[in-house]
Write a structure and sequence with these properties.
Number of helices: 10
Number of domains: 2
Strand content: 5-15%
Helix content: 40-55%
CATH topology of the largest domain: Rossmann fold
Distance between the termini: 7 Å
Shape: elongated
């Protein structure tokens, strides 16, 4: 019988499609910048994307909408982050199998979310499925860091379990597989596109329960 008691999920790209985040970062922010500076959307988008890359996704600022709005001078007088997120709420969409998979897994395991997404984004990303989760952890908002082995160990401590009693699943190879594995957690890489050919990754969350039973 599996020793796993807690199953944690990444959010963006794992439970929900990237559409919401992509719309906010690559449509919403450039649109505001273009309007403020009187330039075309394409000019604004090219500039914004270049600035994103300067910071890079290994820094917590990458995930912080308030940081970017301040950096670009797009604060509350023009449009606060809350309104920006509200404008794209309609783009939030779970992957087709998510609700059924969570319903099934919740009968046997405690489910949590472990994400780099900030507290500003998570209520939108988890809208309609938040009831399945006992806890929601944001590494950036709650601990000021991206996912690290130490962060995953702190999640285990908070949940009152050993690393060997937790499994994690997510779509990023480094953050959701390598790093939790280094913490002693059983990790599953979710590869919806089938890009990895070694057969070790999950193609959907439907496969997760069977894999957990096999531990």
């Amino acid at each position: 019988m599996s020793r796993i008691k807690v199953v944690s999920f990444d959010a963006d790209g794992t439970l929900v499609t990237p559409d919401f985040s992509q719309a906010v970062w690559y449509e919403g922010v450039p649109s505001l910048y273009a309007r403020k500076n009187g330039i075309s959307f394409q000019e604004a988008k090219a500039f914004i994307e270049k600035e994103y890359q300067v910071v890079g996704d290994c820094r917590v600022e990458w995930y912080d909408i308030k940081y970017w709005l301040q950096r670009f001078g797009l604060g509350p007088p023009l449009a606060g982050h809350q309104q920006l997120l509200e404008d794209y709420r309609h783009t939030v969409s779970c992957y087709p199998e998510v609700a059924q998979a969570l319903s099934s897994l919740s009968k046997d395991y405690t489910l949590i979310v472990v994400s780099c997404s900030t507290r500003e984004f998570l209520p939108y990303l988890l809208d309609g499925i938040e009831g399945y989760f006992t806890r929601v952890f944001s590494s950036v908002s709650d601990y000021g860091q991206i996912k690290t082995p130490g962060f995953f160990l702190e999640v285990c401590r908070q949940m009152g379990i050993s690393p060997q009693e937790m499994a994690h699943v997510g779509d990023l190879w480094e953050q959701d597989f390598i790093i939790p594995t280094e913490a002693g957690i059983k990790a599953f890489h979710l590869d919806r596109r089938g890009e990895r050919k070694d057969g070790s990754s999950l193609r959907s969350l439907t496969d997760l329960k069977l894999r957990l039973r096999g531990l």
